[in-house]
Structure formats: C-alpha cells, structure tokens
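Standup notes
- DV: blocked on the single-chain target, sequence here:
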Amino acid sequence: MPEEQDKSEDVLAYTQRNEFTSEIFKIEVRNLGIFGVWELKKLLKTTLNLDASKIKSPNRRDFAFVCFRSQEDQEKAISVLNGYKWKGKVLTAMQAKASADPLIKRRNEGNQRQDDQPKRQKTSVEATCPLAGLPYKEQIEQKRSEMENLLKTFGKELIKFNPDARKTCFPPNSELPCEFLGIRESPVVDGYRNKSEFTVGKNSEGEIVVGFRLGSYADGSVEVCTVADLPHVSDLAKKAAITFQEYVRQSKFLPFNPEHNAGHFRQVTVRTSDETGEVMLVAGVYSSNLTAEEVPLLKQELVDFYSNYDKSKFNCSSLYYQDLRRRQAGETYNPVEHLTGSTHITDDILGLKFRISPLAFFQINSKGAEVLYQEAIDLIAPKEQTTVLDICCGTGTIALSFAKHCKKVLGVEIIEDAIKDAEFNAKENSIENCKFYAGNADDYIQSMVREVVYGAGIHKDQLDLVAIVDPPRAGLHNKSIAAIRSAYDLKRLVYISCNPKSAQRNWLDLARTESKQYKGSPFYPTKAVAVDMFPHTAHTEMAILFERKEDTDDSEAVQENKEVKEVEKETESKEETMVQDG
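- DV (later): unblocked, structure below
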C-alpha cells in the first residue's frame, strides 16, 4: 500500500502552475432548487453584480459550482449569496475545492489497479471516423435510423413540454412530431473536409506529431496520432499537417505539453479550397510560456520556413499566427495575426464565390453544403415578397444562397471579420438585397424584425418573414430563443444543427407553451430532413422547419397585441441604435 501511495501524483498540482485557473477561486452554492444556467447567470451578473468566470452544474438541480477570477471576487460572492433569498429558497455559499486534474486522477487510479489488463488504444481512424469500415450505403442507413429515433425522442419530450403538440403537429398514427423526409447523401465521401484543426503533440514513441488526439485530456489521454490514414481529410490538408510537423521538429520552440503546461505549439488550423487549390495555415501558439522577445522570433521563424519551402511540394498561400493563451474576460475568441501571403482563401457553393477569413464559420463539406442549403430553400419555399433573417450567418453562405429566391435577407454574426467577408461576398457576387450586422444575435433579432415590419411598405397580412438559424455546435443562447419567440411577425423558421442531440434543448424551447420567459405562440416542427455532411463519422446534420400556429381566440389575440406593444416599447431604443449604425 505505501508503494502505491508513493506512485500517486498530486491531482491539484496544476493550480500551482504559471497559468491562471479560476478553479482556485471556486465556491459551491446550495439550495438552488431546479434552475437554468441562464437564469443563474442573470442572477449573479445582473442582479447581484458578481463577475463569475464559469458556472458548473452537473444536473441543474439544487447546487452549482461558480468560479471567479480573484480571491476578492470569491469572498464577495460568498458574502452576498449566503442568506440570499431566490425563488422562495434561502441560498448558502461556501468555498469549494478545485477539481482534480483528470489525467493525473486516471493515472493514479491505474497505479492502484496494476492487475487490470490495459485497454487497447484506438487508432486515429477509430477515434475520428468510427463508421469508415462500413460501405457508404450502410453508413447512410444507420444515420437515417438514428435521426428517426432522435426525432421520436424529441417528440416524446415535446408532448411533456407542450401537450397541444400531439394534435397540432404529429402526423396521423406517427411517433414522429413532424414529417421526416429522410437523409440526403454527401456528393463527396472521401477527403471532403475543407477545414481541420490538427493537434501538435507526441505519439506513443515520444515523436513530435501533428495530427489528432486519440482521446481527450479529461479521459486521461494526451497521445497524438498521424492523419495519414484518415479518409475524410484531403490530401492537401495531410500535406499541410506533414509540413507543419517538419517545421515543429526542427524549431527551437517546443510542442505544448498539457500535462505540465509547458511548451508552445498547440495546434494548426488548415483551411483548403478545392476550387482554387489555396491553403491557409493558422499556427496556434500558447504564448504564456514565451518571453516578449521570443514571440517575434517565433513568428519570423514561421515566415522563413514557409517562404523557403519548396513550392512544387507544398505552397502555403496564407499564413496566420494565433495566440492561444487563456482568454480574458469579455473575449469570445483568440486573436489572429496575418504573417504572410494572402489574407483569405476562396471557395464555391451553388455557383457563388465566397471569401473566407481564418476565424469565419464555413461549412467543412462544401459540396455537402450545396445539398444542405438547397434543402433549406425547399423547406422554406421563399416567395417574391419573402424576407429571410439569417441568424449566425457566418460569411453569408446561406444568406447569399437564398438571395435570388426572395425579396431581402438580413444576417447577423458575432465575428466581425465574418461580416466583412459576407459584405465582400455579396458585392463580389453582385447581390444587392442582403444586409449584414456584426453583433450578438440576442441584441439584433428584434431590431431586424422591426426593420422588416416597418420598412416593408406593405400590409402585415402580405408580409412573409422567415428565419434560418445555423448556430455553433452548442446551439443558440436562451436569450436568442426568447427573442425569436417574442417576434410575433416571424411565422416560420428553419433550424439547422450539426449536433441534433444537443439542439433538442433549443427545439423544445421553440415549441414549449408560452411562459414568462418565452412569450409568443410556440413554433411547431412540421418537416425535417437530415443531410450527411460528415461521411465516415458519427455526425449528421439536421434541418427542421418550424411554423408558428395562429391562435384564433379573439381574447388571446387582444392579449397578444398588448404584449406586442410591450415588446416594441422595450426594443425601440435598440432599433434607433441599429438605424444609426446602418
């Protein structure tokens, strides 16, 4: 027993490193009852003026861990929350111990179970492309079945949240909450990825490798394996990974070691274009372990390596540096700096040219995106008078694809460079009926609706206002869903998700009965279609058409009009700001 204890490592050693972690200043809040993370955030930030950096709650029931950036903020939170009455309950707050390092924890557990047979390590193909061993037709059938079962699960939950859904949207004698149109195949099955984020690390032999991790740090794995055998990564991207591997191996700077928080190179993002053959590299560097003098030296080393590389073997057309230090409060992404070459690459979707910046969202399967966007167009079936709101519009791919089918498209996206790309793309493709805004969707949805309603110059009965939502994997924020629900003139919405399982939370909030948080009639699912954007992997894209069902009860209509006026009053200032900006 003593020998086993000697082998154990300190699971809290990471709190003593040079990298700041808010785990040091963590508290536990109890007696919360059943709650939503969004409403707890609102309580902490807006009501109590507490600057929390992170909230962790395993089941959103009774307790939560809240992290802060300083001891002063931690002590203030304990003082304010202890005895505070929220939702009829008296809260208690106390200092909490930092979470154990998962890698060290698993290693210690392994030392204590020396007689256990070690698990076979997955190959890179098994870790990233679990369906690669199946013929493509079998992959499609498996995914179709999974999406159908997912819709069944969604339907069962929907009835709990809104009992009226059974008679409102379920097709006769169906377990599905809407018509399921099946799954569409990807036109390209192999080498389809136009964007890959490769990790810099070491393999089991200790060699520096640029590829994919075989597992997550939380699962106790830091090993990185080559991408040579992966069927979904293009040959051009594989060459990019190999050249960056060559560079790191000869560099005086080191690959990042997450276990000891040491080293510098963490990842390289590769964006490619089949249309032009361009390659963009974004070198992700952990700068906290670099001195002020070393940062420019590393950047120059990068430039020199790719400037002198044999262009007949590999040509990096665009090179960026990204600082992957821990983000500060208020930062939504790690900044990038252009080093050499062009600032963008160009790709093609549905005959339209798109300029792509390093941080902009762009579907990773360009040919699959053509299928997806056409399905979205078919679901909405836009008319000449239709106006489309493109929420989370990225570089404008959806907006510009819809433009020729409708009157106008308004798009909003939080990344400013993506909006610049969208505006450039509209001009480059001679499209004049699109308008884009940079900012949080939460703040712009109501304003965009008002701009359409009061700027259309037609009677509301003739207005056809629809929305298309293609959010990041985590889905839309509750505030965005609430804004959509309370936009009474918005009647139809297509929700596109690359993670349908987690998107069900958003779907349920769109379709649940009206409440204080979600004002406005529910949006019910009417049609769904899956698109295989990710062959060989377990992921599938899903697009669902939601429609708001009109309420014919006059008394409720009167009440709705009152609520409309209240919402209009609340958003008037936002509209004025938007008009000034526009």
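- Follow-up: The longest strand covers residues 26-34.
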